[in-house]
Amino acid sequence: MRLLWLADVLRSAGLTVHEVGGWRSRGSTSFDPHGIMCHETRGSLRSTDAGEIYVLLHGSATAPPPIAQLYLSRTGHWHVIASGRCNHVRVGWAGPFKGVGNSGLIGIEAQHALGEPWTNRQYDSYVRGVRALRDRTGWGIAGHKEHQPAGYGHPSVKTDPSFNMNQFRRDVAASSGGENIMPALSDQEQEQLLKFAKDNNYLLWHGAQKPDGSGRTDIRQHFYNIEGILTEVKANQMTMLGKDWVDEQQIIDGVLNGLGSKDLDDAATALRAAFGDRIGELAAKLTATT
Question: Which ranges carry the N-acetylmuramoyl-L-alanine amidase domain (predicted)?
Fold first, then answer.
């Protein structure tokens, strides 16, 4: 598979995009992506785009080229490096893409030094670009530090990107106006909430109406989208699904973080409309773990 639509999708989001020569045929075709991985280069504060892109094209002592499909400059401009598989991660031992490696993940390298503050211009461009990719694909989002964190006995641990990934996912979800709750959740958290809904005879599967009978709620429609995404994810045999779940408290924390991207009253209204008479059971389940 080659992602020949990358430049067009980013441009359609109003972003400035540069196409690095040869990108359409660069990278291996042994590539079946189903996730977005966020990185930062951790280069010098005085690094140039040319220097950073040279490394992505030619590799380093620890990573053969190409290193990432996309590069985000401090200017907020995007550079498309490759359309095929690149070498930007190891097979992850944690996070939303546990058990997944380069063949299943698209990599974004943002020009950024250790300890450097994120400018609004670059951070906002990062959010908009990832939102465009997610809108095009439905893929989940993770940070390198979530994929290869310390504490698991592996030598190659990561701490990038330096921004808070939960906040980043909320910002991505809100960047289209904040209409949907669910995109702020990781794929794993979405799967857990989806399973809970189905196990409790969630009315949305039968086209349930809003309390006033006016039609489907936003959250209900988004659940339909998630079901399709998860069906595709399972078909691709992502090992993060179906086993090694994080504990219930982490799931609930993730759900509440996602709901935090909406006004609390709006979130409560959407959940009440979706869960109907079973909203009390949901409330009891949440409060029992606090």
Answer: 32-161
Give the per-residue pLDDT at 244: 37
Q: Which domains does the chain have, with CATH numbers?
A: 6-174 (3.40.80.10), 182-287 (no CATH)
pLDDT in tens, 200-246: 443 333 333 334 444 433 343 344 344 444 443 334 333 333 333 33
The pTM assigned to this predicted structure is: 0.65
Contact criterion met (CB below 8 Å) for 237 and 98: no
CA distance 150 to 145: 8
Is residue 25 exposed (0-12), middle (13-18) or buried (19+ Cβ within 10 Å)? exposed
